[in-house]
Amino acid sequence: MAGQVTERPARASAPEYQGALGSLSVNASLPEVLDRGVRELRAAEETGDLREAARCGLAVAEACRRLGRIEEADRAWKASYRAARAAGHEGAMAWALWSGGTLARQRGALRLAYRLLGLAAEAGERGGDVVVRGYSLAGLAETGRIQGDYEAVGRLHEQLLAEARRRGEARHTVWALEGIAQMHRNTGSYDKALALFEEAAETASRAEDRRGWAWALRGIADVVSVRDGDVERALSLLSEAEEACREIRLASALAYNHKMRGNVLYRAGRYEQARELYAQALEEFREMEEPRGTALSSLGLVKAEARLGRDAAHTAAELASLRTTLDRIGLRHARDMVDKAAAELEVGPLPDHDADGAGEPGRVLPAAGAEALRKVDVEGLR
Which of 88, 157, 289, 316, CA to CA, is 20 to 30 A from 381? Predict the structure, then answer.
């Protein structure tokens, strides 16, 4: 089983848990983090310790974000930033901006994500905090990757992987391996993708990083399903990953796990089961206001229902609407998936309704994204 090894390097850390919460494990359950964070935040506010309030507010923001409590997360990162600014602490300001940028990406506000993550990287550099700067650069890279601009961010992922290995940062090593693996998977290099996902799973397991391990297993399951048609192994891997997600209460990761289970079942021709999983994932993503997951689950649901007899006109209309949604978010790779689905289901070509030039050939990153990535300097992490 991937990830089950005995050798143990340094354990993964959670640098977003700071101050009174600094002893929390990367695997701490999110309700526990939220509960402690709120208590410590109140104590810091009562004593007027602004820097500690910023630190505790960061943990509250991240717990809320990962639990899918979006509005609370939005209020928390902003409050953390205000406290950090009042304290005059650049590093704490950078962490709050990183949290806000990560939340913006999760909500599909990619232009805002680039802006906040770019500001976070700059604040981290001014404050001499290489960890938050590294996290912010990784956030910029991930935002570009989910848009499908692999040319823009591929080298950055490789640079961040090399730097994470040099610094012995297991959690960032796992993140970079998974990102590179996903790009290989999406471009059809399945053998490379599988090797990298397996390395990520082993690294995460040795570092006792349950979150990274769960995401890596999901990637392995995807590749063995699409490359080998090994349905049972894929489903078994997803069951293991789901257990880890439930243990830590990773709402977004669990929803993506359910969507992937739907993908595996769909590829196997088990369309009714796939439809149930896509519908479940869709409900989960809608509940946490995550538009990317909502759109991808909707795509799976449309495909499954088409295979179960939905008429072509309805299918084409739903796919066209989805493509417009994905154009608006700016997700080129996902948009291409809609066109491939239309061809697969023989309901294409779809009408082209690109809004505001979103689907312009060759245009992927918004100006804010291109500028933010242009400024990236990985050497600044040394």
Answer: 88
